[in-house]
Amino acid sequence: MSALGHYLEEAGIASVAIALIRPQAEHTRPPRALWVPFELGRPIGPPGDAPFQRRVILAALGMLEADNGPVLLQDFADDDPREAPDAAWRPPIPPADGVESLEAGVLADLVDAELRALAPAYAKSCTERARSTVGLLGAPPAAAADYVTAWLRGEQPQSLAADMSPILSLRFAVDDIKAFALEAALAGGGQPSSQQQGDWFWNETATGAAIRRLRRTLLTDEDERAKLIATMFMVPALRIPPGG
Amino acid sequence: MRLDRLPPATAERYAALECPDFATTPWVEGPPLAQRRVAIVSSAGLVVRGDKVFRGRDADYRTIPAGIAPENLLCSHISINFDRTGFQEDRNVVFPIDRLNELSAEGVIGSVAPTHYSFMGATDPVQMVDGAAEVAAKLKADHVDAVLLTSV
Fold first, then answer.
1. How many CA atoms does the CB half-sphere of A144 hold within 13 Å?
2. Helix, strand, or coil here: B117?
3. What was the ipTM of the complex prediction?
4. pLDDT tens track, chain A, 244 positions
5. Max Cα separation, chain B?
6. Nearest CB to A64; choose among B33, B74, B133
7. B100 and B112 Cβ atoms separated by less than 8 Å
8. Which of A 52-81 lie inside 8 A of B, CB atoms?
9. Hey, which residues does B149 pair with through a beta bridge?
10. Rounded to whole angstroms, how far apart are CA atoms A99 and A107?
11. What is the spatial distance between Cα B94 and Cα B75, in angstroms, rounded to a whole number?
């Protein structure tokens, strides 16, 4: 992103970058950068907190009026208050215990049931937020769920997207069911931290366990593309248990 | 991101990410903020629902109209190692169009550009040169004189 600042400025357009990784901004030296201490994925800070977001944006845009460049790197001092857990937040469904050792077909059945159970919370959450980020695959959430569970059962279903290979289709289907579950977790107006949501999804849902299982299975696949998808696109690095 | 709060190996990996070296230090000045037209350029792999999603380290870019309906903005960045729950809850965490519209209505900034842009941030920046030049030309055509770059 800092590189884009260079390119745009070279082309005659003033820019200011919001930088999440300070050493990168120090090295790349874009014309102007505001380092923010927020977690990766949240350059403007806390969701749903317009006054805080406004302060971040004004701090960044204000650097456009400084005349002591080139190369300005400033720090935004305040942490994202939404990194703190919401003690009142509760997951939308009870935890799925003891699923790690289940046979794949049984686990797939549990995922089907779990995603059906989450559907009302997902619908409510969509209404409350007036949006959804599910849809990278271009298929309805239920179809994405069926596609993932078919892979889990050892089937090799046809791609759900005409311009995607089956394994690429799986990648985006996994993205979509993760988003489906995590958006369901927002129903009711709770303000869980990302850590709370991640802990719930990866440690307490059959869907999280199923994606980890699918990852392990595909890592042994003969198809190098399947290994690549398993390695890079299924489970965040910090959510991979010791030993894989 | 506060690297000192991450596991040491993870922090080291982020701190050591390869970055391009630039020999120049370009610097463009402009009018007061209240007279500027602001555009967002994101590296979050944002796409309009129905557009081609980013599939890898693509070097091209996507256009995002300022009036995009909230339900039509998706994130297809290839890295799964950054938080998406913030964006899922509130698009402004990554694409602060509502905040810019408010600042424009208050006269704090001059106006908001009609079109915004997104790249795939995991792409080698050297590969983005042509796309950045195209975006710069389009921004100039829209009389944009301030860009807010948002990375993830």
1. 25
2. strand
3. 0.96
4. 678 999 999 999 999 999 999 999 999 999 999 999 999 999 999 999 999 999 999 999 999 999 998 999 999 999 999 999 999 999 999 999 999 999 999 999 999 999 999 999 999 999 999 999 999 999 999 999 999 999 999 998 999 999 999 999 999 999 999 999 999 999 998 999 999 999 999 999 999 999 999 999 999 999 999 999 999 999 999 899 887 7
5. 46
6. B33
7. yes
8. 53-54, 57-58, 60-62, 64-65, 67, 69-71, 79
9. A17, B41
10. 7
11. 9
Distances (CA, A) of B9 to A65, A109, B4, B15: 38, 38, 11, 10
Largest CA distance in chain A: 65
Task: Return left, alpha or beta for A135; rule: phi > 0 is left, psi -120 to 50 is alpha, else beta.
Answer: left
Q: Do B94 and A232 touch (CB under 8 A)?
A: no
Assigned token pair, B77: 């960045």
**Cα dist. B8→B5, B13, B14, B40, B80 in Å?**
8, 9, 10, 33, 20
Tokens 């020999």 sit on residue: B23
State the Cα–Cα distance between residues B47 and B58, nearest whole angstrom.
13
**Side chain identity at A140, as an amino acid letter?**
P
